[in-house]
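From: lab user (bench 3)
To: helpdesk
Subject: output format question, protein + hypoxanthine

Hello, I'm new to running complex predictions and I'm not sure whether the block I got back is the full result or only part of it. Here's what I submitted:
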Amino acid sequence: MTYTYDYYKESADYLLKRFGGAPEIGLVLGSGLGHFASQLQDPVTVPYADIPHFLRSTAIGHAGQMIFGTVEGRKVVCMSGRFHYYEGYDFEQLSIPVRVLKLLGIRALILTNAAGAVNKSYKPGDVMVISDHIKFMGASPMRGPNVDEFGPRFFDMGSAYTPALRKLALELAEKSALTVHEGVYWFSPGPQYETPAEIRAIRVLGGDAVGMSTVTEALTASHCQLPLLALSVMTNMAAGVLPQPLTSEEVIATANAIEAPFTAYVRDIIAHIYKEVRP
Ligand code: HPA
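Helpdesk reply: Thanks, we reran it on our side. This is the complete output you should expect:
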């Protein structure tokens, strides 16, 4: 199915009616921030299944929902449950969530994810502000007919991860309990973790962390000129760094362990981000 501007608009108009207001900041909650939505005051929750033309979550027992509310005095909308290529979606379909968030009127997008640490100076529990990404896979969410209302056919990726927001996140890191780095995110399609040889290659080629999400959302945000901040939680050392096998239990355990300081850090970013992106 080819999406037109009107499809995204119908999804967004439906949400604006349900929310009864427009958000200023959008968040996509990855592992490590799963419970962030409980921070919102006066929350309004809309299941993805109610939203016209929206994607449906495939993960069993994981409904997927948009939650609108206030945090640090800012109106935010959280996507609780994101969509990944490994679930079977096309790259083209993965443009839908960020385009709908854009049409809600958000002025900044914050993406969070869990990632494996490729850079050996990073430790599990550290955070990485994404400065750039590498996706050596021949697909793009912007493939197919261009939707001109969002942006041009060919578009720049030179400052997709908005420099002013990266600077803000690194400044706020100094008063956070977290160790925060800045580095390059390598997109891995999954669902398998990487091989040790792949991780050695990624390290040589300039990747600091590896993960299975975020990049389609970043490309979509860049196409529609949405200011973007993306944060990776290092949930594990990448394949081959340590002798033991990688498990999703390890990923989830580290994400849960860091949830409290990471939530505090993201709250602080929300409290300060609006001055960078207000109209
Ligand atoms: N590789 C890919 N994705 C991940 C990892 C990893 O090591 N950890 C968490 N998400």
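A quick orientation on your result: The longest strand covers residues 108-117. Let us know if anything else is unclear.
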